Amino acid sequence: MPMSEGLFWLVLTTLLFGGAFWLYRAFPFVWTLPILTVTAAVIVILSLSGTTHAVYMSGGQYLSRMLGPAITAFAIPLYQVRHHVRKFLPEIALGVGIGTIIALTSDLLLGLLLHLGRTTNLALLPKSVTLPVALAISERSGGTLALTATFVLVTGLVGSIVGPCLMTGLRIRHFVGRGVGLASIAHVMGATKSMSLDQREGAVGLLTMILTAILASVLAPWIIQIVY
Question: Is the CA virtual torsion 98, 104, 106, 109 positive or negative?
């Protein structure tokens, strides 16, 4: 496969994201979120051009590899408000523990109730975990990676849209409760949404996302062994 073809898709995706980011800043609505508009644009372009996923990923793989460093970079805003986070560490740890256990077990039980296939159910399991870790859990447990990526994307998108409204309706106003609640369900998208609303809430969300990923990596094999 020519290197220039992979470079084309890499540059095109980057330009699409730049345009989508500008669009969202100019018109900050739910349906102008870059993750929605860029995904839709790429799907349309690939469909019209008849380009396969393998060809696209010859360039897109480099963006995927940047997920890890991008998430690591969230340590900077977390460090800047560390004094707020340190004060509520017990509450955050308790929330992460409860949220992770509920997310993992409810996913598996839902799959069993719907009579989903084993690989589909295992792909659903890490949907509330940030993508790089979710893919690792899914691959190790025997899930379908493409489905896992889809579940993670949809979960993050829906959670980051519905979550803030739901918590406001339930009168959850404390930044710790909101940060833990949103990030434990909507992973990096929830943490990013929290950061856009309040820096302290965002810092709690970032820490929640990290702790959830670690805890899910440890608990997932045990839960799978019990269920299957």
Answer: negative
Q: HSE of 40 in the Cβ direction (CA atoms, 13 Å)? A: 8
- The number of C-alpha atoms within 13 Å of 82 and in the hemisphere containing its C-beta is 5
What is the tens place of the pLDDT at every residue in 21-68? 899 888 877 678 787 888 889 989 999 998 887 888 888 788 877 777
Contacts of 105 (CB under 8 A, 6+ apart): 223
What is the Cα–Cα distance from 222 to 228, expressed in whole angstroms?
Answer: 10
Kindly report the average pLDDT of the chain as a whole number: 84
Question: Using the 8-state DSSP alphabet, how is residue 129 labeled?
Answer: S
> How would you class 205 by CB atoms within 10 Å of its CB: exposed for 0-12, middle for 13-18, buried for 19 or more?
buried
Tokens 């829906």 belong to residue: 158
- Boundaries of every domain in the chain: 3-65, 75-227
Q: For residue 3, what pLDDT is reported?
A: 57
128 sits in which H/E element: none
DSSP structure class, residue 148: H
Residue-wise over 110-139: b if at least 16 C-beta within 10 A, else e? ebeeeebeeeebbbbbbbbbbbbbbbbbbe
pLDDT tens digits, 95-106: 999 989 988 888
- The answer to pTM > 0.90 is no
